[in-house]
Design goal:
Strand order of the largest sheet: 17-20-21-15-14-22-23
Strand content: 15-25%
CATH class of the largest domain: Alpha Beta
Distance between the termini: 93 Å
Radius of gyration: 24 Å
Number of strands: 25
Oligomer: single chain
Number of helices: 15
CATH architecture of the largest domain: 3-Layer(aba) Sandwich
Bound molecules: nicotinamide-adenine-dinucleotide
């Protein structure tokens, strides 16, 4: 462990805790029963926020506000130009408040401050991109239905949307949903994770400052039970847009089926990267290191499973091990840190459980394999870990570990590599490394994944749709498809003049 790069305490003074409240119908409020939940920094152990803990009453009030506002019609029938102007103001305000938001994001999630700043800038860009879409919403016209008929297909906002978010990219993920829903003319009730409520509340402050009408975006804080459940079952909600674990996604899908509301799900992944022997191994090793440790591996797109040709497996693994030693793990408040703390002690135990079970089952640990103590900060960190000599059916090779842990599998033929890549319940993203574009494209077309990267990993753009197949989800975010999710199609068929033939003869 001594040869790992560790950044000790940066000595930054932790600011006074943020107080997070519900935002319902334009009014900030505590829970009726006064319940709160405290959040302690996973890295430093200090209290960083106290959030109102909502119950069914607060969830219902948030839903009622969103429903009444949608039905009143002012927002849904506002012009795309008006909605875009507000979204653009929000983007500017996010940038103005970038440092404040990034600091709270780091304190609640444990992610490095430099990374958090990049994410907040990325979130502002998403609001800008969604603003551009607000002005190009349109349907179709059909003028080939006969001389006396004209058909139009309208694209209308779907209605009230429940937005339920995870803790790993709090502001970024709400920004993959909310501005697109607002661009479409929907109203929303947002529930951030109970572990990272604060930056969504800061966003609420900015929405008010940007003059978003009261009741269009409501925030209800609290846990999955009861707030998330109420947002998934209530008849007044038209759609649930969820990002989180596959288990909870399945529960939401079942809960929403009672009212047949639309559900879009962005869920987990066990994302393979396949490395062919003609690949640039240095480039691949760097991207694999990034994919394994970015956000401490607590990332749906974590490249947690590499499938490497047997001829280059040893050389590639050695390169990734060498790079792993150089990645700065430690105090997330130090700008030099690239990997921060793990979200909770329970999650630490889960990550370690996978590693220890694999070892007990005969796997080898090439580096890491346990908790990491960071001087002057704490011990809720996990070492960069690479596990080799695996069987493909071991839980560490099939399950989403969600930690800085890389599983290495090997293959001999293209078909074997493809089989290993596809032999998973997940299908979020996949990567392929080869100098031969035909190998890359053949793999890209045959692999079961919502996103495929060739000779790169985890690039993303607001313009490019994102989502999963199989148990990684349904629906798409980002790009034009991300807007379409929040639009409903209505067909209007119009007879011109009085040419209709009577059905009943007179
Ligand atoms: P989680 O599923 O535990 O929680 C997500 C949200 O759902 C939280 O707000 C939680 O309070 C809420 N929730 C819990 N139970 C609920 C219920 N019964 N009904 C309604 N809501 C409920 O996920 P997490 O631990 O916060 O996040 C990690 C997971 O998110 C990982 O599996 C990761 O892969 C996934 N994720 C996916 C993407 C993607 O785009 N595909 C992005 C980020 C994270």
């Amino acid at each position: 462990m001594n040869d790992i790069t560790i950044i000790p305490s940066a000595g930054v003074v932790i600011p006074a805790p943020y107080t997070a409240r519900h935002l319902i119908g334009g009014v900030w409020m505590d829970s009726a029963d006064g319940a709160v939940s405290d959040r302690f920094s996973p890295a430093h152990g200090s209290l960083v926020s106290t959030a109102a803990k909502g119950g069914r009453a607060e969830a219902e009030a948030g839903i009622a506000a969103a429903r009444t506002t949608f039905d009143a019609g002012d927002w849904r029938f506002s012009s795309g130009k008006e909605r875009a102007a507000i979204l653009l103001r929000v983007a500017d305000l996010i940038e103005e408040h970038l440092n404040r938001i990034a600091l709270l994001e780091t304190l609640e999630s444990g992610k490095p401050i430099t990374q958090a700043k990049g994410e907040i800038a990325g979130a502002a860009d998403l609001w800008r991109y969604a603003a551009s879409l607000a002005r190009v919403i349109h349907g179709d016209s059909h003028n080939s239905l006969g001389a006396d008929m004209l058909g139009v297909v309208l694209k209308e906002p779907i209605g009230v949307v429940s937005i339920i978010c995870p803790w790993n990219f709090p502001l970024l993920i709400v920004s993959q949903k909310l501005p697109f829903a607002l661009a479409a003319g929907c109203t929303a009730v947002i529930k951030p994770s109970e572990l990272t409520p604060s930056t969504t509340c800061i966003l609420g402050e900015l929405l008010i400052e940007a003059c978003l009408p009261a009741g269009v975006a409501n925030i209800v804080l609290g846990f999955g039970d009861p707030v998330g459940e109420a947002l998934s079952t209530d008849r007044r909600v038209d759609m649930v847009s969820f990002t989180g674990s596959t288990d909870v996604g399945k529960r939401i899908s079942a809960a929403a089926s009672g009212t047949l509301k639309k559900v879009s799900l962005e869920l987990g992944g066990k994302n393979p990267q396949v490395i062919f022997p003609d690949a640039d191994l240095d480039q691949a090793a760097d991207a694999i290191t990034f994919g394994a440790y970015f956000n401490a591996g607590e990332c749906c797109n974590s490249g947690s499973r590499i499938i490497v040709h047997q001829d280059v497996a040893e050389a590639l693994t050695a390169k990734v091990v060498a790079l792993s030693r150089k990645v700065p793990f430690g105090d997330p408040l130090d700008p030099a840190t690239q990997v921060g703390a793990i979200i909770s002690p329970e999650h630490m135990a889960k990550i370690d459980g996978y590693v220890q079970a694999a070892v007990a089952d005969g796997a080898d640990v090439a580096i890491g394999g346990g908790a990491l103590h960071v001087d002057g900060v704490g011990a809720q960190f996990y070492q960069p870990t690479i596990v080799t000599n695996l069987r493909p059916d071991m839980p560490i090779a099939t399950d989403e570990v969600f930690g800085p842990v890389l599983s290495v599998l090997t293959f001999a033929t293209f078909d074997e590599a493809l089989h290993l890549a596809n032999n998973a319940s997940y299908g979020l993203s996949a990567g392929v490394w080869s100098a031969d574009m035909s190998t890359c494209l053949t793999f890209a077309r045959r692999v079961q994944a919502g996103t495929v990267w060739t000779n790169t990993w985890m690039d993303g753009f607001p313009e490019m749709p994102f989502g999963g197949v199989k148990e990684s989800g349904q629906g798409r975010e980002l790009g034009r498809y991300g807007l379409e999710e929040f639009l409903e199609v209505k067909t209007v068929q119009m007879r011109i003049g009085t040419t209709r033939q009577p059905w009943v003869s007179s």
